[in-house]
From TrEMBL:
Coiled coil: none annotated. GO terms for cellular component: membrane. The keyword Membrane applies. GO terms for biological process: signal transduction. Keywords: Membrane, Transmembrane, Transmembrane helix. It comes from the Bacteria. The keyword Transmembrane helix applies. Residues 24-277 form the EAL domain. This is EAL domain-containing protein.
Length: 281
């Protein structure tokens, strides 16, 4: 009986997997037509100085404007795009669109801030620094106005490739941040060697401060370490004034979170930039 039950359970899991594969394949097809039908949007979340609350940069965050279902968040489709490989053309589109928008803002006379784009592990593995550079050049942008956010996992999957791409990006002047820092398992010896500009402290640690002692220690250690390594540091997911006060006390200079601004469409983001109109020459 046990054997028969085990066999049946196997059949059950096989069916589950087959169903999942079918769902992912269907979603992959929908994502591909969404790109053709121009249903993807970027929203921009401000990164803000804790010293004067000035705008320091934007992070571009992907949304799928689905005619039937409304705005779909990236958590619902990025993992599938990563699995099927569609993330590579989709990621190229994101970088191109962020660059196009940055060019529009420059042409409107804005005093620009860097725009950061998320690069998934598979996208990083399939592209070279020159591939990224070509997209930035297509829009005649100074490389310092574009930042790429990569996770520790993306680096650790293929360290040699990541090192060479990041090194070349740094030489070109394109900024690189490590996203969700503290949740991966990159070793400190690699961190020391990585050609990056910024560490973004993961939201899960910020969530607990200032109350949770463990989170407070981790956050303060990351900030001290970034300082020693000469890296900028951004705290992600800051929602409360007490969190901002705690971070300021630790000399963390930049935050990104609901307290200082939610992700907004480009036309709303323009409002934040217009406070930074260039002085007439
Ligand atoms: P991430 O890169 O760590 O982006 C930050 C996420 O935290 C965003 O979620 C943002 O809306 C959210 N967030 C910001 N401040 C707060 C806060 O104060 N409280 C809370 N609870 N959340 C906050 P979003 O836009 O849903 O994106 C989720 C993840 O999806 C991103 O995490 C990133 O890993 C991925 N993603 C988004 N856009 C892209 C993209 O264009 N390409 C790739 N490869 N991944 C993307
Ligand atoms: Mg990010
Ligand atoms: Mg993050
Ligand atoms: Mg994340």
């Amino acid at each position: 009986a046990a054997k028969r039950l085990g066999g049946r359970r196997h059949a059950f899991f096989r069916k589950e997997l087959a169903d999942q594969a079918r769902r992912h394949l269907a979603l992959d097809g929908e994502l591909r037509s969404a790109l053709v039908n121009k249903q993807f949007r970027l929203h921009y979340q401000p990164k803000v100085s804790l010293i004067d609350y000035g705008l320091q940069g934007f992070e571009a965050l992907l949304r799928w404007d689905n005619p039937g279902q409304g705005m779909i968040s990236p958590g619902e489709f990025i993992p599938v795009a990563e699995e099927t490989g569609f993330i590579v053309p989709l990621g190229d589109w994101v970088l191109d669109e962020a660059c196009r928008q940055q060019r529009v803002w420059l042409d409107q006379g804005m005093n620009p801030v860097p725009v950061a784009v998320n690069i998934s592990p598979r996208h990083l593995r399939h592209r070279t620094a020159d591939d990224f550079r070509r997209i930035v050049d297509r829009h005649r942008l100074p490389p310092e106005l574009i930042e790429l956010e990569i996770t520790e996992g993306a680096v650790m999957q293929d360290i040699d490739h990541a090192m060479s791409v990041l090194g070349a990006l740094k030489a070109m002047g394109i900024r690189v941040a490590v996203d969700d820092f503290g949740t991966g398992h990159s070793s400190l010896s690699y961190l020391k060697k990585l050609p990056i500009t910024t560490l973004k402290i993961d939201r899960s640690f910020i969530n607990g401060v200032p109350q949770e002692r463990e989170d407070a220690s981790i956050v303060s250690t990351i900030i001290a370490m970034a300082d020693m390594l000469g890296l900028d540091v951004v705290a992600e997911g800051v929602e409360k004034t007490e969190q901002a006060n705690f971070l300021r006390h630790l000399n963390c200079t930049q935050v990104q979170g609901w307290l200082t601004g939610r992700p907004v469409p480009a036309d709303t983001a323009l409002g934040l930039l217009t406070k930074r109109l260039k002085e007439p020459a």
